[in-house]
Design brief:
319 residues; alpha/beta; elongated; DNA polymerase III subunit delta
Length: 319
């Protein structure tokens, strides 16, 4: 059992033991909280049958839809077991290929699980195609949709699924995970990672593994003291890198959101409204980044500018 997932597991197990299992499920919660791990384990529980041996590796009755490699070079890296860049969306052809599989019977038992990671990365045409399967699900087919941003899913998709909410983990729970998964991180690094994680252990691990400490410090300086001569933004660009990969780019944007939340929390209530717009725009970047093709350099300057605006009330108050 994964840390912090007691309630979702209990609800899933009650549903499996019930007389009629709902055909569509949405696992909703922050990116990096463990929803994919849960989905894979839940799918294995779903398709397993007494007396039928189950393969340890890929399962023929578990279909996983996720963004494909970005290009042939990245596809080669995937095939070699190396880290690779993906496309930003799940294409409609992937959904249609999956639907073709649903016209056949499951291979080992009576049930088949379809995991979509993440459903909020579906192209509009892909989402509409998926809706048709959710409206008329084939017998024995069950859908598990992972959603980092539940509001981005079509209301018609949400209405046809049961939602499992994944709560944020406590600082203590994340610290235990960091000590196990990232033993190289000292207490100070773990504390900074936990502060920036917003309850997501995956975000905390990214902080350590991607060495985001210097970036975090620069963002805090910009949000606190501003950046009138653009020097801090220049250093921020250097720290992030000219061409960061998608994982680093997404982690950086999420880190900026965490810094903005911290800045709001430390600002007196009377002045918070002056910071709310910058915070809202950073949240919008977090939402859009996985599916938008931002220029890395311009994106860093946009993040730096929004953080610098959050320092404006304090600068004005001191002349």
């Amino acid at each position: 059992m994964l840390t912090g997932h007691d309630e979702p597991w209990a609800e899933w197990q009650r549903a499996l033991a019930g007389p009629r299992l709902h055909h569509g499920w949405i696992l909703a919660g922050r990116r990096g909280i463990g929803k994919r791990h849960f989905a894979l384990a839940a799918a294995r529980m779903l398709v397993a049958e007494d007396g039928q041996p189950q393969p340890a590796g890929d399962h023929p009755d578990i279909l996983l839809l996720q963004p494909l490699p970005a290009n042939p070079d990245e596809e080669k890296k995937r095939d070699e077991g190396k880290p690779y860049q993906t496309k930003r969306n799940i294409a409609v052809d992937q959904v249609r290929q999956m639907q073709g599989r649903l016209t056949t019977r499951p291979t080992l038992g009576a049930r088949r699980a379809i995991i979509i990671d993440a459903a909020d990365d579906l192209e509009p045409a892909s989402a509409n195609a998926l809706l048709k399967s959710l409206e008329e699900p084939p017998v024995g087919s069950y859908f598990i949709l992972i959603a980092h941003r539940l509001g981005r899913l079509l209301p018609t998709i949400r209405s046809r699924c049961r939602i499992l909410q994944f709560p944020a983990l406590s600082a203590g729970q994340i610290d235990v995970i960091l000590q196990t998964e990232a033993p190289q991180a000292d207490a100070a690094a773990r504390a900074a990672a936990i502060e920036s994680a917003g309850g997501s252990p995956g975000t905390a691990l990214d902080f350590v593994e991607l060495d985001l400490g210097p970036i975090h410090q620069l963002m805090r300086e910009i949000a606190t003291h501003g950046d009138r001569d653009f020097s801090r933004r220049g250093r921020l660009t250097e720290a992030i890198g000219v061409r960061p990969d998608r994982r680093r780019q997404l982690a950086t944007i999420d880190l900026a959101r965490a810094v903005a939340v911290s800045r709001l929390r430390d600002t007196p209530p009377a002045a918070q409204r002056l910071l709310a717009d910058s915070h809202a725009q950073l949240v919008q970047l977090v939402v859009q980044a996985p599916t938008h093709n931002y220029d890395p350099g311009l994106l860093v300057m946009e993040i730096g500018g929004l953080l610098a605006r959050m320092a404006a009330p304090r600068e004005a108050a001191h002349g």
